[in-house]
Structure formats: structure tokens, C-alpha cells
Design goal:
The chain has 281 residues and is of the alpha/beta class. It is 41% helix and 19% strand. The strands form two sheets. Strands 1-4-3-2-5-6 form a six-stranded parallel β-sheet, with helices on both faces. The chain has a three-stranded antiparallel β-sheet with strand order 7-8-9. A hairpin with a 2-residue loop joins strand 8 and strand 9. Bound molecules: adenosine monophosphate (AMP). The site of adenosine monophosphate has 17 residues, from helix 2 and strand 5.
């Protein structure tokens, strides 16, 4: 497996691959890899001759400095794992490589970026879009793979690719879960044993909400039940929203045939912020 910390040799390697007619799949990550990430790599390996995984904790997408500082970093272990599953190349640049000058660009996604994560993490999606635009220009992947777990991110990246006409196809990979249903996340490493047990409330709430909404409950009543469940566990609910999965418009009701509604949830277990989602249908 090739490991690149710098852009120039990475570009030379990729040019060479393209000359040989090899298609390139990109899996962007922030490292601390788990099986969820690995499923993205595997999806890419099925469709491309060359799979490249980027590992970069992008400061531009963190609005909370403490969160950035405490984000788990396990590069050696990550590279070992990637090697074992047959990833072809890793790009793990440092901040000087990605941001030789402080960035002044701000990317606004209108209503897609003001709900849910956008409301609680100002600037987050601008930072995500900035670093992904850089990766897309540097790597020029034919395909890029993202997890459903970050649904709003997926919708926003799709918009970025469409509007800026990046010549690549995006793929969505289903969320991989632990046995008790907790969505796999690098942040789970930061939970202590008690917090880890409590964290299952996110998944349980989504399951409960799905059943209740399908049975005809109103969204506001479901939010009330979830808020009580979270309070009982001592877990802080940030939001539970049901949105149109395409345009992310927040829904007040799912009665009357809304196109593919998705339930999205976020909150804090102790100091650790977790998100999850589930389609209603
Ligand atoms: P991250 O390293 O958290 O930025 O995630 C990198 C990519 O992996 C993103 O596209 C995520 O949506 C995806 N991902 C994270 N957790 C999971 C999971 N449990 N199952 C599938 N994909 C995931």
C-alpha cells in the first residue's frame, strides 16, 4: 500500500494509474477507522481498480476547538488496517499541505446548510465542502464513497458535485452498527463504559419513532417521548427532526405521502457528540 503525505507524489502516482486505464475510487475519512469506514473501502474496491482512502482531521470543519483537539487520531493502526484489507493508497496530509495559506473561502449551501447540523455547527459544511473540493481537484476520483450516517453531509456533497460539475459519481453506503444498534463512529472510542451503554438511546429512539410515526403519531408527540427518554438516561438531545431526504426541508407531519422522509437525531453523551438517522419507509 502506498502512503502519501504530500500532494505532488500522490498526483504523479494517480496520473500513472489513469494512464494505465485504472479507475480511482476515493473514500474520505478523518481516521480512527472502524468497520463502517471499511465497508466504504470495500464498496470502492468492488467498483474501481484503485482505491484511495484519505485520512485528515480537517480543522476547517470543527466549530468547537475542544472537539478538534480530542478527535481520536490512530494513524499507524489505521494504515495497518487499510493494508490488511487491500486498500491501494492512503493520503494523510498535514495542515500545511492542505492549508498552506489560511482559507478565506466560505461556501454557503442555503437552506440545505441551515438545518440540523448546520444550525448547531456553524461553518461545519463550508469546511467539509472546502476540503472535499481540494481532494476532488487533487485526486480526480471517478467515484467517491460516503456513509448514510452523515445524511446531511451526503446531500450537501451531492449538491457540491452537481453545482461545481465535478466529474465523479457519489455513492451512499448504509450505516454499519454495533450489535446493540449504536451506529459505528470514531467518536464512540471516547465513551466510557457507562456512556457507551447509554448511547444506544439514539438507535432505540429512531426505532421507536419509526414505529410511532408509521402508526400515525404526530412528530411533535414523538419528539416529546424522545426528549423524556433522553432525559431519563441523562443524555442531552440536541435535535430530532424528520426531513425530506432530498431537500432536507423540515417536516411537521409525514401524513399525505412525503417523498422519502428521513429521521435525523443528534445529541451529547457526556462530552461526546453523536448523530444517527433512519429512513422512515
Ligand atoms: P468520518 O471519518 O467520521 O468523517 O467518516 C468518513 C466516512 O465514513 C463518512 O462518509 C461517514 O459517513 C462514513 N461513516 C462513518 N460511520 C459510518 C458507519 N457506521 N457506517 C458506514 N459509514 C460510516
Amino acid at each position: 500500500m502506498e502512503v502519501f503525505k504530500e500532494i505532488k507524489p500522490l498526483k504523479a502516482y494517480l496520473n500513472d494509474q489513469r494512464l494505465q486505464g485504472n479507475s480511482v475510487g476515493l473514500v474520505p475519512t478523518m481516521g480512527a477507522l472502524h468497520q463502517g469506514h471499511i465497508s466504504l473501502i470495500q464498496a470502492s474496491k468492488l467498483q474501481n481498480q484503485i482505491t484511495i482512502c484519505s485520512i485528515y482531521v480537517n480543522p476547517a470543519q470543527f466549530n468547537n476547538p475542544d472537539d478538534l483537539l480530542k478527535y481520536p487520531r490512530t494513524l499507524e493502526k489505521d494504515n495497518e488496517l487499510l493494508k490488511q484489507i487491500g486498500c491501494d493508497a492512503v493520503f494523510c496530509p498535514d495542515n500545511n499541505e492542505m492549508y498552506p495559506e489560511p482559507s478565506i473561502i466560505n461556501i454557503d449551501f442555503g437552506s440545505l446548510g441551515t438545518v440540523m447540523e448546520g444550525k448547531f455547527r456553524p461553518g461545519h459544511f463550508s469546511g467539509v465542502a472546502l476540503v472535499l473540493s481540494k481532494f476532488f481537484h487533487i485526486i480526480k476520483p471517478d467515484h467517491a464513497y460516503f456513509g448514510q450516517k452523515d445524511w446531511q453531509q451526503f446531500a450537501i456533497v451531492q449538491k457540491l458535485v452537481d453545482e461545481l460539475m465535478f466529474d465523479l459519481t457519489l455513492h451512499r453506503v448504509e450505516t454499519l452498527r454495533e450489535k446493540d444498534g449504536l451506529a459505528m463512529s470514531s467518536r464512540n472510542q471516547r465513551l466510557n463504559a457507562v456512556e457507551r451503554e447509554k448511547a444506544v438511546v439514539f438507535y432505540q429512539s429512531l426505532i421507536m419513532a419509526k414505529g410511532a410515526l408509521q402508526a400515525g403519531y404526530e412528530i411533535k408527540d414523538v419528539i416529546e417521548i424522545i426528549t423524556k427518554d433522553f432525559n431519563r438516561q441523562g443524555v442531552r438531545l440536541e435535535y430530532f427532526e424528520v426531513v425530506d431526504s432530498k431537500n432536507l426541508n423540515v417536516l411537521n407531519s409525514v401524513k399525505g405521502g412525503v417523498n422519502q422522509p428521513i429521521m435525523c437525531i443528534a445529541g451529547y453523551v457526556g462530552e461526546v457528540r453523536l448523530i444517527d438517522n433512519m429512513f422512515l419507509d
